[in-house]
């Protein structure tokens, strides 16, 4: 078992990582239940794990109520936020209660946001069931829905009270989803740890094939890396947390262009986005071309998109930059970009010429 503490003063919490934890989750959840019914929000693809969790709670004398939503990115919507909030209000959720978000990043982001506004804020627990959610979205308190204008544009920072990660639940996750989540693992190496990127190059394929100890290592490493950054810059105001957005400015534009659909999962957009960020850094003479090539080669080797063509996007540079102008990092009309000087040396560049980004994108193969 590994426990990572996210140190945020009175909002600090533990992230517990252990194979088989779901069936033992009641030990951790009992103190948060306060003798009341615990709502568990999940989606239709997570039902076997919902049963495990409900059985564990039931055996410990904790009653639960399941709210099952449709799967997919379109669930992060105004309509679902309204529906979920009404259900939670009907259940009589109080500020001191804790709602359990059992699912991937979609469920975690939606439930976290609903809990941030329900009665001006109630508690919630993240029980992530995708690799992406286990290594990234369940930690750090970013919650959001998507809107017509783009990705995550309505949301709040709202930290969970606890995160429970059982890596064995990934056994039911489709391989394409595991790969998409792996992109966010690679991201931590590219941000600031060349040794971890080399570890990914050496172990990525076996991890994706299902090796449990490798998955446990990647999850524990990623959670610790994210917890450190979040503790330094909880609300992305100090420049540090923006590093977690590596690949996302390009990636969110690709997701917008593909309609937030099954055509391109978030992690796949991030993979292509990281390749583009390194490609652009190399084209600008900031990073060695060899570094950009290493990124592309690793992503391609594990079957992730490594650019526009493999992301299935044929839009022009102008269209893609148009999507980027909705990015939450926009600051007085300029868009800070996550670029890199080398593997593991990413940084925030506030002087990127959007015309150069457009030209770079137009020069990519489609
Ligand atoms: N808040 C953050 O810091 C943060 C970080 C990264 C990503 N995100 C957000 O997370 C979302 C993507 O999350 P995701 O990749 O987990 O997608 P997701 O929540 O859509 O889950 C992917 C698919 O896997 C299914 N699923 C979940 N667990 C399963 C399991 N154990 N077995 C079988 N099927 C399972 C889901 O039903 C869904 O179809 C995006 O909206 C992204 O913006 C947020
Ligand atoms: O936690 C963060 O900070 C991140 O940026 C993690 C990202 O992987 C995640 O996709 C996040 O939701 C993107 O944030 P956004 O502010 O660009 O919406
Ligand atoms: Zn992400």
From TrEMBL:
<keyword id="KW-0479">Metal-binding</keyword>
<dbReference type="InterPro" id="IPR030960">
    <property type="entry name" value="DHQS/DOIS_N"/>
</dbReference>
<comment type="similarity">
    <text>Belongs to the sugar phosphate cyclases superfamily. Dehydroquinate synthase family.</text>
</comment>
<keyword id="KW-0028">Amino-acid biosynthesis</keyword>
<feature type="domain" description="3-dehydroquinate synthase C-terminal">
    <location>
        <begin position="181"/>
        <end position="329"/>
    </location>
</feature>
<dbReference type="GO" id="GO:0005737">
    <property type="term" value="C:cytoplasm"/>
</dbReference>
<protein>
    <recommendedName>
        <fullName>3-dehydroquinate synthase</fullName>
        <ecNumber>4.2.3.4</ecNumber>
    </recommendedName>
</protein>
<dbReference type="InterPro" id="IPR056179">
    <property type="entry name" value="DHQS_C"/>
</dbReference>
<keyword id="KW-0520">NAD</keyword>
<dbReference type="GO" id="GO:0003856">
    <property type="term" value="F:3-dehydroquinate synthase activity"/>
</dbReference>
<feature type="binding site">
    <location>
        <position position="142"/>
    </location>
    <ligand>
        <name>NAD(+)</name>
    </ligand>
</feature>
<dbReference type="InterPro" id="IPR050071">
    <property type="entry name" value="Dehydroquinate_synthase"/>
</dbReference>
<dbReference type="GO" id="GO:0009423">
    <property type="term" value="P:chorismate biosynthetic process"/>
</dbReference>
<feature type="binding site">
    <location>
        <begin position="129"/>
        <end position="130"/>
    </location>
    <ligand>
        <name>NAD(+)</name>
    </ligand>
</feature>
<feature type="binding site">
    <location>
        <position position="184"/>
    </location>
    <ligand>
        <name>Zn(2+)</name>
    </ligand>
</feature>
<keyword id="KW-0456">Lyase</keyword>
<dbReference type="GO" id="GO:0008652">
    <property type="term" value="P:amino acid biosynthetic process"/>
</dbReference>
<feature type="domain" description="3-dehydroquinate synthase N-terminal">
    <location>
        <begin position="67"/>
        <end position="179"/>
    </location>
</feature>
<feature type="binding site">
    <location>
        <begin position="105"/>
        <end position="109"/>
    </location>
    <ligand>
        <name>NAD(+)</name>
    </ligand>
</feature>
<keyword id="KW-0170">Cobalt</keyword>
<comment type="function">
    <text>Catalyzes the conversion of 3-deoxy-D-arabino-heptulosonate 7-phosphate (DAHP) to dehydroquinate (DHQ).</text>
</comment>
<keyword id="KW-0963">Cytoplasm</keyword>
<dbReference type="GO" id="GO:0046872">
    <property type="term" value="F:metal ion binding"/>
</dbReference>
<feature type="binding site">
    <location>
        <position position="151"/>
    </location>
    <ligand>
        <name>NAD(+)</name>
    </ligand>
</feature>
<dbReference type="InterPro" id="IPR030963">
    <property type="entry name" value="DHQ_synth_fam"/>
</dbReference>
<keyword id="KW-0862">Zinc</keyword>
<dbReference type="GO" id="GO:0000166">
    <property type="term" value="F:nucleotide binding"/>
</dbReference>
<feature type="binding site">
    <location>
        <position position="266"/>
    </location>
    <ligand>
        <name>Zn(2+)</name>
    </ligand>
</feature>
<comment type="pathway">
    <text>Metabolic intermediate biosynthesis; chorismate biosynthesis; chorismate from D-erythrose 4-phosphate and phosphoenolpyruvate: step 2/7.</text>
</comment>
<feature type="binding site">
    <location>
        <position position="248"/>
    </location>
    <ligand>
        <name>Zn(2+)</name>
    </ligand>
</feature>
<keyword id="KW-0547">Nucleotide-binding</keyword>
<dbReference type="Pfam" id="PF24621">
    <property type="entry name" value="DHQS_C"/>
</dbReference>
<dbReference type="Pfam" id="PF01761">
    <property type="entry name" value="DHQ_synthase"/>
</dbReference>
<keyword id="KW-0057">Aromatic amino acid biosynthesis</keyword>
<dbReference type="InterPro" id="IPR016037">
    <property type="entry name" value="DHQ_synth_AroB"/>
</dbReference>
<dbReference type="GO" id="GO:0009073">
    <property type="term" value="P:aromatic amino acid family biosynthetic process"/>
</dbReference>
